[in-house]
Backbone:
């Protein structure tokens, strides 16, 4: 009797850790952190975002750093006077403009994965300060050299449509030959987006992202020269579509 009791006690003590281990295997894994990277195109230019995700589904918080190119919708490419031998440039453009925005927000699972759903849909928004970075728009110019009528000099200068005539512009300068002399304008950004995740597991994020972005600055952003009745703007609304990749743990 005592031997049977001891055997049952030993078997019970062995069963407890085995059953707990089985429960741990069957228990769902909880993912409460993650990182994502997205690249997208908008009607105003390209952009990208690096984000840290915190919290469990169906509600998660996000901290991100977004960099987005912003062009004026009135920009139009112009062919130089030498035709196809030059590079097209934007007539009247005086600055390139990028918006760097550290943001915080919240996402909700509109369509959770599971119960027959092979995809997951997430919606949400984020807000934060806008750090607008302006850098002069550079062009290549044809400059005649006194005493050398058949040996012109090509120079790179910040574009000023009030000083540079059509007959001396060869085209847009490349990035490496342009000077980097940025100025900053401050404002606020708000982004709303929806993401469809096609991955089959919660540990992986892989999908497409659609969004609407609003970037508003405290004063007009001098992207274009204010000639011919053009007035610069301080608010920019754009729609975006892109790809998002990442993982959770």
Residues:
């Amino acid at each position: 009797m005592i031997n049977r009791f001891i055997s049952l006690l030993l078997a019970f003590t062995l069963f407890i850790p085995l059953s707990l281990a089985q429960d741990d295997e069957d228990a769902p894994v909880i993912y409460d952190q993650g990182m994502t990277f997205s690249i997208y195109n908008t009607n105003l230019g390209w952009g990208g975002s690096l984000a840290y995700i915190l919290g469990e589904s169906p509600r998660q918080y996000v901290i991100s750093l977004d960099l987005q190119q912003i062009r004026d919708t009135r920009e139009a490419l112009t062919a130089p006077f030498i035709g196809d031998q030059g590079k097209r440039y934007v007539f009247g453009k005086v600055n390139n403009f990028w918006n760097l925005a550290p943001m915080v927000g919240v996402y909700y699972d509109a369509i959770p994965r599971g119960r027959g759903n092979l995809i997951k849909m997430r919606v949400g928004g984020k807000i934060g300060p806008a750090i607008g970075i302006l850098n002069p728009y550079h062009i290549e110019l044809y400059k005649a050299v006194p005493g050398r009528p058949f040996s012109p000099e090509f120079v790179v200068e910040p574009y000023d449509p009030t000083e540079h005539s059509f007959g001396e512009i060869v085209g847009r300068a490349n990035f490496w030959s342009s000077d980097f002399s940025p100025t900053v304008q401050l404002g606020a950004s708000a982004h709303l987006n929806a993401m469809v995740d096609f991955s089959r597991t919660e540990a992986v994020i892989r999908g497409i992202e659609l969004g609407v972005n609003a970037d508003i600055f405290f004063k007009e952003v001098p992207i274009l020269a204010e000639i011919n009745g053009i007035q610069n703007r301080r608010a920019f609304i754009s729609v975006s579509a892109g790809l998002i990749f990442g993982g959770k743990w």
Q: What stands out?
A: The mean pLDDT is 84. DSSP finds one helix and 13 strands in the chain. The radius of gyration is 29 Å. The CA atoms of residues 135 and 160 lie 13 Å apart.
